[in-house]
Amino acid sequence: MIERFLSSYSNRFVSRYLILAIDGGIVVISFVIACILRFNLKVSDVNWALYKYYLLTLFISRLLCFIYFRSYSGIVRHTSVEDTSLIFKAITLSSFLTIVTSSLLTYTTDNYLFYIPISILIIEYFISLFLMVASRFLVKDIYKTLIANAPGEKVDVLIYGAGALGILTKNTLLRNRYKKYNIIGFIDDNASLNFKTVEGVQVYPESEAIHRFIKDRTDTNLEVVLAIQHIKPHRKNEIIENFLKQDVVVKVVSSVYEKITDQQLKSSEIRPIRIEDLLEREPIQIDNQNINLLLAGKIAIVTGAAGSIGSEIARQLVRFRPKTLLLLDQSESGLYDLENELKQRFRQYLGESTEIVVQVADITDEIRMRYIFENYRPQFIFHAAAYKHVPLMEEHPYEAVKVNVFGSKIVADLAVEMGVTKFVMISTDKAVNPTNVMGATKRLAEMYVQSLNNRFHSTRFITTRFGNVLGSNGSVVPLFQKQIQAGGPLTVTHPDVIRYFMTISEACQLVLEAGSMGKGGEIFVFDMGEPVKIADLAQKMIKLSGLRLGKDIEIQYTGLRPGEKLYEELLSDKEHTLPTYHPKIQIAQVDTQAFLEIANSLIELKRILKKGDKALLVNNLKIIVPEFISNNSIYETLDDLELK
Question: Which pTM value belongs to this model?
Fold first, then answer.
């Protein structure tokens, strides 16, 4: 019966006008009680014929203040301190206005018929305040009792953080209509709060909470919600690790800074920990105001727009209102999906201010690319088109050279010819001391655009170089997620392999910031924090999925793949860095080759490319990029034989 009642009414709310009417009724009842108490319970002594006008005056004053403060607009079963504060303000102000009005009328007319006894108003004030607040909390308590006694699965919750965000989180969880949460305690590092109560919930230090609620716990219906507004990444990781070791589900409150001011939080914003929450550094935030000045009203093109990086660049570019945004890729399905997404999500930016143009094209097709450049005359190019999978490119060096080197060359040459203002190339940390074909081709593309920048000054060529992107197509995180869903095992190449990571959003912010700050010829790198051991990443993802390593799922080591190395670098030994105005972004100082030297090398490389001989092609690549030393690859023999 209780369950039917809750399911029927959990989505319904009492009309605010009914609450206003009830509040009005409380005013009438309170006034009558106040009059009776004023005359020592002798009802016959009350001059009701006169006092009904006093009541009318008070009622109108109360009603106006209720409407002004909207004290009736809250959901009664979720009454909070804020709701009580509104009631207090409305009743206090209306009582004050009634006293002032009554006194002024009496003083100016010398007619005591307008004088409402202050004693009655004071008694009525306290009765009204008590009844309105008590009635709301009574309804709230009844509802909580019904929820607590209703059948079904309940979830015990410990909220880490007893501050404003923790209180907001508690109230949000209790308002959840689809899941029954029982707040069993707060956890806080502030020793002065230990074993005190906040809104009726006791606060514990972390060690005490683990001992009392988590150790030797048999059921698994326990969650910890991290609700701290300002917390350092290493401390957040430490807290999460402590509870993951106890096999406890950990969640975090997202978008906290905006929500505190609104005193509102949606249940969906209390979400499970994501792997990007565990990055060992502060999230990179970049001020993109300069980009708006640079791109507004201009024509920009994104190559590789259907990919993970290209599509996110497009999403961020739309906000800066370019006149035309060209999305170029070979994948017609990916472009179709991206176009629909942009038109759906960013309607306010499109239309008169921004036009989205989709171009299905291959960057290695010079005729097609020339047609696009001549017809649209882009002013900014964000070059994200590339082959990036290391093992596949090790098997297919022809495609890697064709796309990553000569595709980039075609786009870069057209940029110079058409007078493009800026060309921003997306590179990779694998271009540093490359040990595989993919990294070597990206390094050669870097070398070519830098030589163009030194030769032709009409177009500024800028390179951004960063590590692995969380969640991008083909990256390790989506792979682990699929393997977890399939029941495992999770495949890791080597126990000691480490990588730098960033989020897609961060990577694209770097690309856009480079476009605004770059003067031409720079290779931008930035502080990515500490590298992450892939084996540790796999273990964390298993725990975040609520599974147990070795019991529910296994990790299997498969050995390094062709061309792969244990660790990636952002700078080679020969490179140094210069600071920029952003503390997280640096400029790599690299040796650049003359344009004619690189151009002649590419002529020879193209001649060899046409032969289709893998070994000959890779060997020539090693000649042009001398730091390219193969690792765990069939091409190691080329280094041993010193064919160069």
Answer: 0.69
